[in-house]
């Protein structure tokens, strides 16, 4: 298989983005992420990011939400791409501090139009935020089909109200929730979760040598209480084929934090998975699942794996600000 897989969510998600849905699994491929069965959501397909966020929102009890129409028409002609732009965050949603605004298009935006597109994707915030749009090469899209907005500083400020104007076509509004940062230390077999002024240490097991977990900063894309995983879809033979629980999705290629029976004995001691982060079945995985939300941040350090690519999910924070601006046509902007 390639760098994407299929995933089967018993919670009822429909087949989603990327043309071919990603797989989820208990473990990673050597050069990609975890993998699993068929029919689900993956980062990047044109027109699917908004529907995927809406599906997760409905699952989490927030409802899918619908972006309202923009109140006025543009005074000058807009690039045609804006009329078919899809936004990754459902209107009215509350997301974690790491969630970038990600806009995708059904076909690449010509380089000559990108500055105009960025300028017409107007971001307003309740707190002064300096940020920029940057064109991201999504793992499953062509160059010019995805542009993301992130703040210059480390993540969004909790409580920020964000409004995105998509030219004259739509207005999307969402809120940044409390801060949650989960830091995985591969070598120490430990995850430290900092949220709501509290710090919790959770023993974990990560990818075994040669199948290491991605390093770097990842952002929770979605989550599901049960995922069907089939190793045959990623070329691992009959290693596993079954349902796995409390799955928190981190990369398009299939990296998850989820319940793993082997974590009952190996968490805190050895790394034995094929790349995902495994949590014990004694309620540990369920508690982490219940605590975390879409847009929260998970960082991984240690081991020998490369830094996760920017377009493999939401790897935006792995670039320095200078690197981020290098792919921006309009440059840095201040919101108000």
Automatic annotation (TrEMBL):
CDD domains: YkuD_like. The active site is at residues 258, 276. PROSITE patterns: LD_TPASE. This is L,D-TPase catalytic domain-containing protein. Keywords: Acyltransferase, Cell shape, Cell wall biogenesis/degradation, Peptidoglycan synthesis, Transferase. Pfam families: Big_10 (PF17964), YkuD (PF03734). It comes from the Bacteria. Signal peptide: none annotated. InterPro entries: Big_10, LD-transpeptidase, LD_TPept_cat_dom, Transpep_catalytic_dom. Residues 55-77 are annotated as: Disordered. It comes from Streptomyces xanthochromogenes. Residues 180-301 form the L,D-TPase catalytic domain.
